Amino acid sequence: MSVYIGPAIEAAGLNKTFGDVKAVDDLTFSVERGTITGFLGPNGAGKTTTLRMLLGLVAPDGGSATIGGRRYVDLPEPGKVVGAALEATGFHPARSGLSHLRVYCTVSGYPLARADEVLDDVGLGPAKRRAVGGYSLGMRQRLALAAALLGDPEVLILDEPANGLDPEGIVWMRRFLRRYADSGRTVLVSSHVLTEMQQLVDQVVILRRGRLVRQGSLAELSSGPPWALVKTPEVERLLAALGEGVADLRVERLAPDALRIELAAAHIGRVAVDARVELHELTPGRDDLEQAFFELTTEHESEREPA
Ligand SMILES: Nc1ncnc2c1ncn2[C@@H]1O[C@H](COP(=O)(O)OP(=O)(O)O)[C@@H](O)[C@H]1O
Ligand SMILES: [Mg+2]
To answer: Domain total for the chain?
Structure first.
């Protein structure tokens, strides 16, 4: 038997078209073991479609998607390799959380007691005998996570798991997934809300219109020099004041009265006050990752067909 040592998840040249919508467009990325990777992009970017292709639920038009080096359909015991919680899970409202998971145990050949274990793991122990119809959205998210954990998988794939969680729930999820990844296992978690993910993930894969925008570590993508957006009717005077004693001031002129300046906003503000330069706006730049995400989200909006 050979031991697979490559990335936990790999997508290579993945493509999927629905009618005239290119949902996933030549997408290549990989997810390293032991990491929590955020799969980020605005609504409609192709995240769910990609995850469904990884899980063998949608057939790609081209390219390959593998988990632990194999296509999902070729995994001999898929439940032990990967657990997934996708959007829109069809829990029957009249049945209890426990009864749902017991059915899954029976289908997959796990002992029934495993249902109680995973329900305890996600904090649903006290509610497990209640009908799912009475669960909050956050509780249903936890139930979906519990179902994903049944086979004690190496890889967890979660589609927008923070939807419907209150801030406390998000903190809980963060701790849970961190512990999971710290044990050497791997988490791929999608979201269209960057702020939910910033505290959680090590790596990011950013999608826009089905294409890869960026992939890298959060640290790598967040680092960069500080910058600020400035509006002033006295551009030349401001630049003269800022330029004193600075060898290489990086400035981009966005409009006659608007600049992007590669300096900390607080510094620019101080210099402007000292030089009595009038400022109409001074906005600190978001860090690089947030900026990248912001840009691709707004560009997406403006590309939309007018209603
Ligand atoms: N089964 C489907 N039939 C038709 N279009 C689909 C289907 N699934 C997804 N799409 C379209 O593919 C694009 C990507 O959708 P999706 O993968 O759900 O994005 P995300 O999860 O990032 O919001 C969207 O334009 C969506 O409308
Ligand atoms: Mg989605």
So the answer is: 2
- Whether the pLDDT of residue 175 is over 50: the answer is yes
Quote the pLDDT of residue 294. Answer: 64
**Same domain, yes or no: 187 and 202:** yes
118 and 245 co-located in one domain: no
pLDDT: is 163 or 255 the higher one? 255
Q: Is the confidence at residue 300, as pLDDT, over 50?
A: no
- Residues within 5 Å of ion ligand 2, judged at the Cβ atom: 47-48
Residue 57 CB–ligand 1 contact under 6 Å = no
Task: Calculate how far, in angstroms, residue 45's C-alpha sits from the geometric centre of ligand 1.
Answer: 8
135 and 147 Cβ atoms separated by less than 8 Å: no
How far is 272 from 6, CA to CA, in rounded Å? 53
Residue 211 sits in the same domain as residue 240 = no
Shared domain for 139 and 198, answered yes or no, is yes
Among 14, 18, 22, 57, name the best residue to mutate to test ligand 1's pocket (greatest count of ligand atoms within 8 A of Cβ).
18
Same domain, 135 and 276: no
Q: How far apart are CA 194 and CA 211, in angstroms?
A: 18
d(CA 63, CA 138): 35
Cα(109) to ligand 2 centroid in Å equals: 30
* Same domain as 160, residue 19: yes
For residue 238, what are the contacts with CB-CB under 8 A and spacing of at least 6? 230, 232, 259, 268, 271, 272, 275, 277, 279
Give the residue numbers spanning the domain of 272: 228-286
Do 103 and 244 fall within a single domain? Answer: no
